[in-house]
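Lab notebook, bench 4. We co-purified these components, and the gel suggests they stay together. Before we commit to crystallization screens, I want a quick structural picture of the whole thing.
Request: model the full complex, all chains together.
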Amino acid sequence: MRFENSTTKGLLISKVLDARVDAAVAHDLKAALLTHFQPEPQTVVLNLEAVGFVDSSGLGALVSVLKNRGNGGDLVICGATGAVASMFKLTRMDKVFRVFGTVDDAVQALGK
Amino acid sequence: MESAKAVKWIRLTIASELEGATLVGQSVHAICVHLGLDETTTFGIELCVVESVTNAIRHGYKLAAGNEVTVNLAVFDTRVEVEVADEGLSMPEANVQALRQGSSVFDFDENDLDSVPEGGMGLQIIHATMDGVDYVTDGKTNRLRMVKNLPEPEALHAAV
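Here is the predicted assembly.
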């Protein structure tokens, strides 16, 4: 999987550059995101604005990361629109993750 | 009563690899767009095809390469019918019931992270998204059949 990572106001912004987050990449997604919580947990803002499709395997990987992020860490979502936002709603994962409209919204709410 | 004859149909066969689910999902998406289906219907069909094919590869074939999954997509005036066929292990009866009648997989407590599922969501997604679902097997070939009704008015006629 391809990501574009940057740091802003104490937050790691990780933008997914691939258009699809599905079973074929779910393992790589989980492994890549978990590295951000070692050795010290932090808040990761996962930017999905370039993603057009997420399936249940992709969502399951994100849930697994959330469960294994460690104390003091967090994984929040931004940029989910269209089919991706629908998927979060259909599965009620929009109640599990903190979801923001844009990166700026997330930074404004969570940045130090 | 409408004709049982499909307006258009296509058959896609992929290798039993997870990348194949990606490929068939993209293909079904493109077909639905070409037919003029709306965004919500297109996404629903694409999602359910991907979930079904992924289940067939992961659970039917246990991720073993060298097998095939076939997707038949037939378009009628008022509905799209999709059949996902494989020759792997058949779905357990409890899963077939979940597919037909729905399950409680999304009735988790959002404040209790341990209760949130990491897997087992595909069947409920299909149940909730499609208008009709059935699963049959003859001991060799497993067929997951799904029906998605098209909203009115649909632009399908303009595309045909």
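Chain A has one domain: 3-100. Worth comparing against the SEC data before the next meeting. The interface with chain B takes residues 20, 22-24, 53, 55-57, 59-61, 63-64, 66-67, 82-83, 86-87, 90-93, 95-96 of chain A (CB under 8 Å).
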